[in-house]
Amino acid sequence: MTPMEFVGNWQAGAWANAALDAAEATAYGCGDYTADMPDEEILRRLLVSNRQRAGAG
């Protein structure tokens, strides 16, 4: 594999991961998700979503 092939494969993998992250965030109701969003904010939103689904509010 040449260096350019490696970079091309890496970029395709990175794009696929980003697309999957965005689709998953949308499914959880976080359509404004970005890769720069802090982990704490992601976890806060998941906790709110889980509480709503559990009927706790």
Index terms:
mainly alpha, 2 helices
Summarize the structure in words.
- The protein is an all-alpha fold and 57 residues long.
- The chain has one domain.
- The protein contains two helices and no strands.
- It has helices at 3-27, 39-54.
- It is elongated and about 55 Å long.
- The model has no long low-confidence stretch (mean pLDDT 81).
Order of helices and strands: HH
Count up the domains.
1
The helix content is over 70%
**C-alpha geometry:** elongated
Mean pLDDT: 81
Overall SS class: mainly alpha
The major sheet is characterized as: none
SS field, number of helical segments: 2
Low-confidence stretches: none
Distance between the termini: 53 Å
Strand content: under 5%
- Quaternary state of the chains: single chain
Q: Rg to the nearest angstrom?
A: 16 Å
What's the total count of β strands? 0
